[in-house]
Amino acid sequence: MEIEQKQAPLIEQFVKQASTLNGPGPALVKLIVEATSHPSLFAFSEILSVPNLLQLQGTESSVYIDLLRLFAHGTWTDYKSNAAHLPQLVPDQAVKLKQLSVLTLAEMNKVLSYDQLLKELEVANVRELEDFLINECMYVVQFAAGRDLRHGQLENMMQSLTNWLDTSDNVLSVIQDKIKWAETMCEEDKKHKMEVKSHLQDVKKSVHSKVN
User: Fold this and answer.
1) Phi/psi zone of residue 152: left (φ > 0), alpha (ψ -120 to 50 degrees), beta?
2) How far apart are the C-alpha atoms of 146 and 45, rounded to whole Å?
3) How far is CA 169 from the centre of its chain?
4) Are 132 and 97 in contact, with CB atoms under 8 Å apart?
5) CA distance 101 to 119
6) pLDDT band at 154 (very low <50, low <70, confident <90, very high)
7) Of 78, 107, 101, 95, the residue nearest 132 (C-alpha)
8) CA angle, corner 102, sides to 143 and 82, nearest 5?
9) From the CB of residue 11, how many other CB atoms can be counted at a distance below 10 Å?
10) 148, 49 in Cβ contact below 8 A?
11) Where are the domains of the chain?
12) Greater confidence, 15 or 111?
């Protein structure tokens, strides 16, 4: 089963588990750690929206809600900037967040330079970066549909689609004008050929008339 096929049942599984847990105990924290460590889960907004998670607000474990938000919308750079206020990541979480960071970078840039990736992912060298991209990211970029929508991103996407449609309409209009122009030129060419043919016939008739 491919990654995109696993997303829905995995999300449903974690949402169901979160919805059945009562009290701000370690069970909710454990669920968040499991979700953010799962190798096939790349969307977290639905889990984040489960009302039971609000039980962690105002407790020492509230940082795990911030951690879940980070995995829904943030990047490795965001984590490093706020590491002092977030739980320390286990290795699987670190890999997952770096994978998500590559997805975010790929959304914003058509071409990703090694220099940019080395800096954003804090990878030691090009060989290590290439190993990470090949072993941990190729299947993610190929099969994952994308990350959770960030605040305001939907409006931006709608505006981008609107701009694309407007551009497409303009291009279509230009193409239609070119087709009409080509059809007109074709008709004029046919008319010119008919005129030349008619003129030749008149010349032939005139020549035959003079010869006879």
Assistant:
1) left
2) 12
3) 23
4) no
5) 12
6) low
7) 95
8) 130
9) 18
10) no
11) 3-149, 152-212
12) 15
Euclidean distance between CA atoms 17 and 147, whole angstroms: 22
Predicted confidence band at 153 (pLDDT cuts at 50, 70, 90)?
A: low
Structure confidence by residue, pLDDT tens digits, 64-92: 999 999 999 999 999 999 999 999 999 99
Per-residue tokens: 156: 């931006």
User: What angle in degrees, to the nearest 10, is found between the helix axes of 91-108 and 63-73?
Assistant: 40
What does the alpha-carbon distance between residue 112 and residue 133 come to, in Å, rounded to a whole number? 12
Q: Which residues fall within 8 angstroms of residue 157, CB to CB, at 6 or more apart?
A: 149
Cα separations in angstroms, 116 against 77, 101, 113, 177: 12, 12, 5, 44
Tell me, what's the pLDDT at 1?
A: 47
Say if residues 69 and 34 touch (Cβ distance below 8 Å).
no
